[in-house]
Amino acid sequence: MNDDVRNIVLGVVAAGISAALGWVARTYLWKRRLRRKQSFFGLPDNSESLLVVNRNAGGPEFAVMRYDVFALLELAALIKDCNAHAQILPHDTARQGFGERTEFCVGGPASNRRMAAHLSSLLPGVRVNMDSEPGPDRGSFQIGSERYRVDNGKEEYALLARLTAERSQNTRPVYLFCGQTAITNQATTRYLARHHEKLARKYGNSSFALLLKVINSQAYGPDVVELVEDVTQAAQTPIPAAANPRNSHRAS
User: Fold this and answer.
1) Selected residue with higher pLDDT from 203 and 31
2) Please, what are the domains in the chain?
């Protein structure tokens, strides 16, 4: 074998080794990223999860708001990426505990009984005004001593929470997407889809509650979302019976 042939063979072997090492490294990084995502969502391979959705109060019995349908599609994509499966349940048929399967609960407490139960038991520092009559506080959030009013289409708020039962280290999380309007439910699921890696790095598998603001949804839809603040402590601390909100937040 002359020098030219030997150099060619060595070049081909080196290229093959480099390609193999590159493939191994990419596969390792992809698997590590997948495992972190699965851990954050509580969705190991072939696991089951629940998508609990509210119903459109003004529509037929089994109608769901189209923005809530879009929210379910956002979540279904996340679940599929984790190699897991989802079961969709209307809010008034999901009569079971939590922790055995990861749960994604969509919709405010006025139209989602499951959400109302979760807020009452897991986030006692959150109150949602569910008055049927029009008024400045209709649909507003009270979190601790602060009130956040809705200005439809201009400035709307939503709560994104990841919660686990403290009594057991092995329970799967419950994710809450509680918006003041249907489009803010979708905005909240989209925010999670875009920022789950950052949230996983910050919170790991711990509980958190974030207050989000959806800006000018009548023009930008669910895409322009701001993080107002981490309200975990205030949301998990029961509001005293006689407490009144000190401040109101609404669009100017």
Assistant:
1) 203
2) 37-123+157-211+227-233 (3.30.379)
